[in-house]
Structures are given as C-alpha cells and as structure tokens.
Amino acid sequence: MSRAHKTFDLVIAANRLPVDRVEGPDGEVSWRTSPGGLVTAMESVMKGREGAWVGWAGEAGEAPEPFTADEIHLRPVPLSAAEVAHYYEGFANDTLWPIYHDVIVNATFHRYWFTAYERVNRRFAEAICEVAAEGATVWVHDYQLQLVPEMVREHRPDVRIGWFNHIPFPPVELFAQLPWRRRVLEGLLGADYLGFQRVADAQNFVRACRQLLGLPTRGDVVSVSRDDDARRVRASAVPISIDFKGLDELARQPETQARAKEIRESLGNPETLLLGVDRLDYTKGIGHRIKAYGELLEEDQVAPPREVFVQVATPSRERVAAYRELRLEIEREVGRLNGEYGRIGAQAIQYLHHSYPRQEMAALFVAADVLVVTPLRDGMNLVAKEYVTCRHDGGGALVLSEFAGAFHELHQAFICNPHDIEGLKQTIMAAIVTPEKEKRRRMKAMRRRVSDHDVQRWAARFLDNLAHAPERPERSTSEREADEAHAAADRRARELHHARGPRTKH
Ligand code: ADP
Ligand code: F6P
C-alpha cells in the first residue's frame, strides 16, 4: 500500500466526515456540519490536535480531494450510489442498527449488503493506512466500521488501534441473529482496545466472543486464540460526553439568552415550554412521547397556550423504509393532536423537521422548562447532557428514559420507562409541577456530573486505555474512588427506579 506524502500520529476514522458536502441547485458547493452525536463529540476533541479524519463526505459519487478544515486533515472516502444504498442505508442502518437497538423494528438481511459493507470497510482501512504515520494511534468509530480494525492490523502491525461504539452492543441472543456475526467479532478483535458506552455493552461483547467464537476471556480481556501467548484485547466502558465548557459559554452569551427569550415570546410565553430534540429515529421513542402528551391534552392536564410542546425532529436516513414510515406516523399524530387541541395562535405541538445552528439549539435548551428524552434504546443521548449544560441558571427539568446510556450518569433526572405510557404521563407532570427548589437541586447535581466528565476527559480516558491495553492504566486513588462512588450511585438509582415498579393504572 502506498503512503501519502503527509502522515499523522493520530488518525480518526468515522463513517462521516465532520462536514457534509452539499451541492445546491445551481451546482454551487457548500459544507454543512454532519448530523449526530459522533460529530458533536469528536469535533471538539480534535480541536487543537494535529490529526487526520477519514470519512465519507455525505454524497454519492467521487470523493472531494483531501483538504484541511479547522486544522484537521480531512481525507474523504468515496461511496458509489449503490454503496450508499447497500453499505450505509442497507447493512449499517437496516441490518446492524435494528439488531443493536433491541430489534425495535425487524432487521433485514441481504448477502449483497454485507459484501458492500466489507468492500467499503476495506476502502476505509486503505485510506487509514495511507495517512497513518509509523506507530500512529488509529481511532475507529462506530458500527459502520467494525471490520476496519482487523483490516488495518493486517497491513500495519506498527499502529495502535482503538474502536469506540457510539451505540449499544446487543446481548448475545440478539447479536447471534446476524449471519456474519463471526466476521464482525473477528473484525473488532483486530483492535488493541474496544470502548463502549455502558458496562453492559462491553460485557455483551466479551460474552459474544466467548460463546460464538469459543475464545478464552478473563474479566474484560479476550484472547484472540486459544494459544497461551495469544494477543489480548481489552473491552471496557468509557461513556461519551460533550464539550461542557464550549457549550456553557455559548449558552451564557447575551445573544443566546436574548434568542431564548424571543422563542418563548413567539410561543405566547407559556407557563411551561416542553421540548423534544431527536434525529427522527424509531429508537428515540418520539411516538411514545407524543402518545403520552396526547393523553395529557385529552385529560386537560396540559393545554396550550399554558403548556406548549416543541418537537425538533432532525431529518435522518430518509431513504430507509422504517424511517419513512416513522415520519408519516409522527406527522399524522402531530397533525391530529393540533387539529383536536390547538387553537389559532396556540398549537398543542410545534413540530420542526429541520437542522439548526448550534446557537439556535442552545437557545432552545435555555428556553425549555422541561426536556423530554424518551428513547427505547440509545447508546448515550448527548441531547440530555447538552440540556443540562445550558442550564447554568439552575432552571429546567429533565425527563429521561432508563434505556438511554445517559440514565447511568444523570440519576437526578425524572426517570421514566417510555413503554409505560401512564408512568410517562405521571413523570412529565412531575417534571412540570415539582417545586423549583427541588428541580434546582437536581439540575445542580447533573451539571456537576457533566462538567466533571466532559468530552475531553472521555477522549483522554479512551486514549489512555488504548495506550495501556490490554492492561488497565494506573488511576489515581481519587479517580478510582470517584469511579466506585459513581458505580454505587448508578446501582442504587437502578434499584430505586425498578423498585417503584410500573405506574400503569389497573
Ligand atoms: P444521535 O447520535 O443518535 O443523533 P445524540 O443525542 O447523542 O443522538 O446526538 C445528537 C446530536 O445532534 C446532538 O449534539 C444534538 O444537539 C444534535 N442535533 C439534534 N437535532 C439537531 C437539529 N435539528 N439541528 C442541529 N443539531 C441537532
Ligand atoms: O452513533 C450513532 C450514529 O449513527 C453516528 O454514527 C452518527 O453520527 C449519527 O448516528 C447520525 O447518523 P447518520 O450518520 O446515519 O446520519
């Protein structure tokens, strides 16, 4: 494999570059921030570090020439229209995505989709090998690139390879459905270190290696063969976070505060502004949330303009059938509720199917009295952490599903099981009516957690784990104690929440 002129000591590989290439109707080209939590997190990690980012520019066809943006060397990987359909929309988002999210919708299996996945993963691996300097650190991201670690190792045994999964890793009973399960595990085991959002995700991976590949495992370490001197790979939890400092500063800016005020005014200054912000994805539980809110409207527990619900639903994967169906379903339901409970100048639910600049998102978070986060399964949910970060005023309340990775850190949220509609209604009402003093206590504790565990700390931890793998890095006593205290608090929060049991009326 030939090497490019310039090589880098740190190489990031993710399905998408941080920016998507957009061609306007007259052929004019512009670049737009790519959607999703991965880019939000990694963009701020890469600031100030010299490195390369290998990824797709978001359009089918020839890739643009490599270029530099914000001091990062961007190395676009081309995808043909057929590869977008088979690798990205097909295998990544219609086979793996449902399996890794509890099979909320059925997974589709096509052998030719896997062939495209393999081919595109190889292309990414080749691009990585071209830009990686001797002994470089290669950090591969997410479920779209699970074969890449092994493919890079094959050609470049000199580099250190880490992989981080932004989404859940499924229990072996679900993962076993995948006809290419062995290939995926072997692909991942090409890494030195594998990072996951939750302890349970890392355990699921280790268990899959033991049960499906018959490999020896010990704690969080997998041996790649049964030989005594086999290479060992470590898999552990290192939950992702956000750029607390950057977002906190943005939220405090007078322009953001003024815009938040303006948003409230344009909604008729409601007593309670409820907000949902999600990619329009069936994992996010948007339908469950709207059903619960619809019943609250019907029972007159909420009514516009006293309460207003704003749902931002970011366009996502619109050519995949399950996403198209979801959009129809959500828009029909929002239309029905507005028809039934809205008035002129006072819609029950304001529905916005757009992407917004960061400052507008921050203003929405500042404006909202309640953020409703109800995924049926979510690796982390950065939106929950962003909301908490924007509330330096101590105001606001967070309704949070126990099935989001963020639940394991933000224990003071108003916790719900989105499948339990009655319980969800009660939790939303609790978030509205709980006295300010109690809400402030909760918000303060959550903000402390996010500010102590920001994205910089996440990246430092990941890279430290990678550098020391398969051994655990040394941690200071205070760090260890903090981790243990957090694990105990998480256990307690889960026990308490489950002990309360279902809230369904009988
Ligand atoms: P996912 O990675 O599944 O999309 P996350 O909640 O982890 O979910 O991350 C979503 C990211 O995308 C957040 O940083 C959020 O602020 C951003 N985002 C969501 N909706 C929009 C939107 N309509 N416009 C701009 N950014 C958005
Ligand atoms: O982590 C989930 C993820 O698939 C990321 O890889 C990506 O940033 C985000 O969701 C958005 O998805 P897509 O790239 O398919 O638009």
Detailed description of the structure:
By secondary structure, this protein is of the alpha/beta class. It has 17 helices and 18 strands. The protein has helices spanning 37-46, 81-100, 111-131, 148-155, 172-175, 181-188, 199-213, 244-252, 254-266, 286-298, 321-341, 358-367, 382-390, 421-433, 436-452, 455-468, 477-500, and strands spanning 8-16, 19-23, 29-33, 51-56, 67-69, 72-76, 132-141, 160-164, 193-196, 217-218, 221-223, 232-237, 272-279, 307-314, 349-352, 370-373, 397-401, 414-416. Strands 5-6-4-1-7-8-9-12-11-10 form a 10-stranded mixed beta sheet, sandwiched between helices. Strand 10 and strand 11 (221-223) form a beta hairpin. The longest helix is centred in the C-terminal third of the chain and has 24 residues, at 477-500. The chain starts with 7 loop residues before the first strand and ends in a 6-residue tail after the last helix. The chain binds adenosine-5'-diphosphate and 6-O-phosphono-beta-D-fructofuranose. 6-O-phosphono-beta-D-fructofuranose is lined by residues 15-16, 35-39, 142, 166-167, 316-317.
